[in-house]
Amino acid sequence: MSAPTKANAGVKPATRRKMSFVKSGRSGLPTAEQARRQSDVIQSAWHHFREPGPVIAFLNTRHADLEGQPLHLAIESDDGLERVETLLEQMTLRS
After folding, report:
1. Is 52 exposed, middle or buried, given 0-12, 13-18 or 19+ CB atoms closer than 10 A?
2. Fewer Cβ atoms within 10 Å of its own Cβ: the N or the C terminal residue of the chain?
């Protein structure tokens, strides 16, 4: 290395950045109960809509009647699953 000059005086040498990967969001895999409820709500939505596009849209769109996203509510609890299935039944009766 050469002696520092006025042009680069006070400039720190480049340091190498460490790459670290950290998982964010949900921790771990769903429990058996959560997986069961997820499967149940997907089957109910599929039975109602019978096409992947509307099923995905329904499950991932916030509904005012439910005050949340059907998929998240159903996975959270049996009560949430029941509320989503009731909404699907009501939608079927209307059509």
Report:
1. exposed
2. N
Cα 33 to chain centroid distance, Å, stands at 17
In whole angstroms, give the CA distance from residue 39 to residue 18: 40
Lookup result for tokens 């006025």: 6
HSE (side-chain half, CA atoms, 13 Å) at 84: 31
Encoded amino acid at 40, one letter: D
Quote the pTM value: 0.69
pLDDT tens, per residue, the chain with 95 residues: 556 566 666 666 666 666 666 656 656 899 999 999 999 999 999 999 999 999 999 999 999 999 999 999 999 999 999 999 999 999 888 87
Alpha carbon separation from 43 to 13, 46, 81, 88 (Å, rounded): 59, 5, 12, 11
Domain ranges of the chain: 32-94
Looking up tokens 């790459």 gives: 19
